[in-house]
Structures are given as C-alpha cells and as structure tokens.
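Researcher: Please translate sequence to structure tokens.
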Amino acid sequence: MLDTQNPQAMIAGMAAAARRAAHQLARCSTDQRRSALLRAEEAIRAASAEILAANATDVARAKAAGLTDAMLDRLRLDEARVAGMAAGIATVATLPDPVGEVIDTTVRPNGLELSRVRVPIGVIGIIYESRPNVTADAAALCVMSGNAAILRGGSEASESNAAIHRAFCAGLNVADLPTDAVQLVGTTDRAAVGAMLAAQGAIDLVVPRGGKGLVARVQAEARVPVLAHLDGINHVFVHASADPDMAAEIVRNAKMRRTGVCGAMETLLIDSGYPDPAALVRALLDAGCAVRGDDRVRAFASVAAADAADWDTEYLDAICSVAMVDGVDEALAHIARHSSGHTDAIVAADEGVANRFLAEVDSAIVLWNASTQFADGGEFGLGAEIGIATGRLHARGPVALEGLTTYKWIGRGTGQVRS
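Model: Translation complete:
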C-alpha cells in the first residue's frame, strides 16, 4: 500500500514497481504489446459511460472554480472524444515497433562489428494538466515503446484520469501484462510533483504537458532529464505571393480551429506587398477572434493596439496579434526574436521564398502552405504524441514511439583484443 501522505516514499515505491514492470515489458514481443493495447482500447470503449460521468464531475467542479473557456475545452470529453481516445490507442498498436531496430552498423578494421540498437528509456514520468486524453495517449505510447509510465494529472481532471486509467489497466490485465507498467499518482498534492522531479535514478525521463507555470517549474526543479516545450508562440507569415483564398483559410484555421492547443497561431505576419491584408484581418474578426495590431495594421483595421508583450504571449484563446512586415527578411527577423521554437508557417506561392523560410526558421516544426494546427503527433502519422519537444537534444517536434527510445551499442567480435 503506497503512503499518499509521504510523497517521497510514494513516488519511490511507484518507481520501483515501474522499474520491475519495465523489465517485463522489455522482454515482451511486439505482438504482446500490440495485443495489450487492443485490449485497452476495448476497455476504454466499454467504460465510456463511466468516463463521461467522471468527466462531468470534473467539468462542473472546474466551472465552479472559474476555469477559462479554453481550459474547459481541454478538459471536456464527449462520446466522440472518448471514441477518438480509444481509436488513438488502436492506432499506436499498428505503428512500427522501434524497439530492437538497428539504427546502423559498422565494421571496424579489426573486424569488430558495432551496431546501434533502439531500446526503451525505462521509467517515464508524465506530469500534465487539464487534458484527460493524455492519460490514454501517454499510457499507450509508453507501453508500445516498452517503457513504464508514472502519470500525474492535474487536480481539475482527477476523476476523468482515474476512470481512464482504470479502464486502460483492465486491458493490460486481460492481456497478462503488468498493470504497474502504467501507474497514476493517487494524490493531487503538489508535493508529489516535486518528488517526481527529484527522483534521479528512479525515473529516467520527465515529460511535462501543461501551462507555462507547470513547465517552468519542472524545468527549474528537475533533477531528472526533461523533454518539454515552454510556450507555443507560433507564427503564420503570409507572403506577397500567397493565394488569397488559401491564405485566409489557413489563417482562420491556424487560430480558430481550437484556440487552446499548443499549435494554435498566436501571431500573424502579413507581407506589406500582399494585395489585401484587410481581408486576412476580417477573416479573423468574422470568426470571433480579437485582434491586436501594430500601427500599420491599425491604419486599415479597427482593432486594439498591440503592445510589446503581445509578440511574446501565448494566448491560448481567441486573441491574435497581427503585424505588417516588409518581406521575408523582416518576417524571419521577427520570428527569430519572438518564436518559441514550436511551430511556424509560411503561406506563399513563391517556392524560392518558401524554401528559404523552411531552411532558416529554427523551430521544431516549420510548414509551407499548411495550418499550424497540424502540430500534432496523430496528424504526423505517429498515432499519438506524449508532447511536443522544442529542445535540440534527443527528440524534437511531436514525441511518439521513436522519441521514447534511446539506443545501446552492441558489438560482435571474433576474439578481438585491444593492444
């Protein structure tokens, strides 16, 4: 029985159990892990009513606590979202298994054969807020990649997370895989987060998914390696050569499809040579977006004035900052100053300009003639994602199965000794 009154002891016990489960998973075949995910998918579908009832409790409590509409949208589940969650688990089960993949092989002059082979990372801690679907996504990705997971969801989604976790583990049990492979921290005490971050040697990697405050705390306090992004300050640059209908549709979708996701556009940059910049601003206003513009934008549109802070703000709401720029050089300079390195896009018919943008923007995801809302593991064909990484080490962009593996060197000799 874990001691929830002692977060350090609780996390230590969970990590030890997770390590044992990870060793078992590492010995499982691909087919065994696939079968476990398909049983988990079935269990999620069968528990849909229970999950929705739990979510209704969470949503009611969150409304009473004054959560924003954007946060409520992240929290809320319906039948379609539960079905999508289950389908996501099944999709992960169909993906190529990275475990055991030979990355490359070389033969040394002395005949020693050296290979790099993908292996699971081990025990992964996921700390997340609001979105209960992360419980299923993270569990599926960790199990399929041979890792054990310790999940710590936000207090606002505690009932939903518990219901999803119960169903997922029921599937693992049917498939005869250890349920300790996916554990949910059973307390909303923030000290449990601190205990996870301090669990050096017990937890191999921490992945935070949530608001800026959570991610900043994780990055500041962690004694465990962290895979994360802090902000999603994403740009769409509409070049003078852009097709007007395409540009308007991409701008509208990038901001307004779902405003609370990390791939939402936060800043629109319009080339001063674009023939109808007012139409792009109208597309946002007509969709219900509040616009904050620079002086050049306000000369042709009745919008609020953007201040210096707007260019560095992740709104996660129906708000967008808009600036006019003189060509691709100025757009690149603005993005270099203000982008968080998450997702940036260009809309252009000029292939040369587009290729320069793709080469020079130093973000994890860079798009040409496509909405920033494609910044999602499912849309990348990865089945699901455990998060978007904006760093430069290990994994970048949507992190899925391959990003949850490391590698080891395997050497095959014929009696070589070193002189």
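Researcher: Any highlights?
Model: The chain has 14 helices and 16 strands.
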